[in-house]
Fold:
Amino acid sequence: MPAEIGLSVVQVNGNYLKLKAGYLFPEIGRRVKAFAAANPDAALIRLGIGDVTEPLPLACRDAMKTAIDEMGTAEGFHGYGPEQGYGWLREAIAKHDFQARGCDISAEEIFVSDGSKCDSSNILDILGAANKIAVTDPVYPVYVDSNVMAGRTGEAGDGTRWVVGEAEVNQIHRVSGELGLEAVFGTDR
Structure:
């Protein structure tokens, strides 16, 4: 019907259909729930999603309140920050997290982002589509999923692993050797 009246139909990115496995965190949740039900007396420390375990410290709460009050004034209001992050923040990170520990890192070398999920997917936009990718195992799932969704993988092998040909393995070993690294491919699973 849409084509008959001159409209085109939005096409779905077919690479999303390659996402065979469920996302890691709901799977962890299912397993934790099943384990807790079967072992009601077990003390669990949940490390799956990176949830916080302690309340925010007073210094953080005070800083947030001050920042909110500043945003409520014409002088203090600001929208999105600079693409590399605020200079004052990058300076503080360089000074307290690196230089204080003897690492010669300048603020110009610091990039403040909104999180690794966006960055690991966005970096693909600057790489050519013909580049081959290699991902460690185990790995944070977004690294694989973002490459799958961008069409940079083959088909899923057994549903959890991606098929890599012998030529790709040889190339990875060659490049790794040139960089002084060792590439190891596990076959024990």
